Amino acid sequence: MIVKNLINLKKKLKKKNLELHTPFFQNIDYKYLNEAIKSSFVSTQSGKFLKYFKNEILRITKSKYTILLNSGSSAIFLALRSINLRKNEEVLLPTLNYIANANAVKSLNAIPHFIDSDMNNLGIDIQKLKTYLKKSFKVVKKKTVNIKSGNTVSCLIATHIFGISCNIDELASLCKKYNIKLIEDASEALGSKYKKKHLGTYGEIGILSFNGNKIITSGAGGALMTNNTRIHKKAEHLSQNAKIKHKWKYEYDDLGYNIRMPNLNAALGLAQIKKLNKYIISKKKLFKIYEKIFLKNAMFKILTPPKDLTWNYWLITILIKSENLKFRNNTIMKLNKKNINVRPIWQLNHKISLYKNYPRMNLSNAEKLEKKIINLPSSAHLLLND
Q1: Measured in whole angstroms, how far is the alpha carbon of residue 185 from the centre of its chain?
Q2: Domain with 210 in it: what CATH number?
């Protein structure tokens, strides 16, 4: 039935393909890119589009500081460096997550510690985490320590999957109680607000991504957001190769990186962010169409936003009511053969060979969700005209 319903939707929309999430370019995108090229300011040092794009992010998110970077992956890595993550410290993060966060932790010789997911919003299960912290950790001299390993817990990375808020206010309170720093992965959440506060601004640091498949794109790009002046200064310094500021000398005082966003990418990002509200309205209409299709479906249910969330509708998602992996895979295969681009969720991090021996709590919810999730075509342009 689902295959038939989505084939009918494709015909109704008069599309050859229903793409999962692809960018939509219009005259303003080409105009700003051409301006950047003609200005000769295409790199990372200067150019008006870097300033204008950053200001738009600050305006939308209400973050005090934003640093434009070359990817969301760079942003999470820089976030960890900026809080002084040390060797063998543990970072709590969901196993139901894109691999970049665990990779960033491991690359700094720290330890990813995998946490279970909430069955409703797909973020961290706050109740299971509370129980786990109480049972398996202790607070020593204002630091949370893993009783089994003896390692200090540095931070928690909370991901807002598909732009849907996890229990972020409760997580922020829990992190404060245990003196654990909170980093928000809001890569997929530009335009999403929880209790009227933009996601990515509840913790010490939030990160955004502007990859080609996100709600807006700069081609490649990301951003680090913070309200903390010390963190901002360190992150900005490290993102500029840790170069000591001087008019003509090239001297450095730390291990830094050239991971800033070029002006050319910022030009595209600025053009795109000006259309953010238009994209969200279009995607909400698409969600309403899917909602009608799956309202009384015996096999599937549509993932709906929690109360108090203003959602950006980044990836619209259905869940199979049973835990039938074969049925899920067959459904995905049949739809893709009809040029309806659906996908499963990422492989759970703890199942990846690189991370199979790393610490984790009971992950029963995530393992159930892995068998249930199908992402539907959610491109804004499916309901937009040129």
Answers
A1: 5
A2: 3.40.640.10
**Which of these, 366, 69, 331, 115, lies nearest to 210 by C-alpha position?**
69
User: What is the overall mean pLDDT for the chain?
Assistant: 95
Task: Note whether 264 and 173 are same-domain residues.
Answer: yes
Determine contact, residues 172/203, Cβ cutoff 8 Å: yes
Contact 185, 160 (CB under 8 A): yes
Residues 297 and 264 grouped into a single domain: no
In CATH, what number is assigned to the domain containing residue 359? Answer: 3.90.1150.10
pLDDT in tens, 184-211: 999 999 999 999 999 999 999 999 999 9
Give the tokens for residue 228: 């903390």
173 with 303, same domain: the answer is no
* Domain span including residue 370: 2-25+275-383
Q: Considering the entire predicted model, what is its pTM? A: 0.96
Go through 254-269 and write b for each residue having 16 or more CB atoms within 10 A of its CB, e for each that does not.
eebbebbbbbbbbbbb
Answer for the pair 217, 188: CB distance below 8 angstroms, yes or no. no
- Which of these, 218, 225, 228, lies nearest to 199 by C-alpha position? 225
Identify which of 288, 285, 328, 336 has the alpha carbon closest to the alpha carbon of residue 17. 336
**Same-domain check for residues 141 and 286:** no
Q: Is the pLDDT of residue 135 over 90?
A: yes
Helix (H) or strand (E) holding 126: helix 126-136
Name the domain boundary from 256, 273, 290: 273
Per-residue model confidence (pLDDT) at position 134: 97
Distance CA 157, CA 238 (A): 20
Contact present, 378 and 313 (Cβ < 8 Å): yes
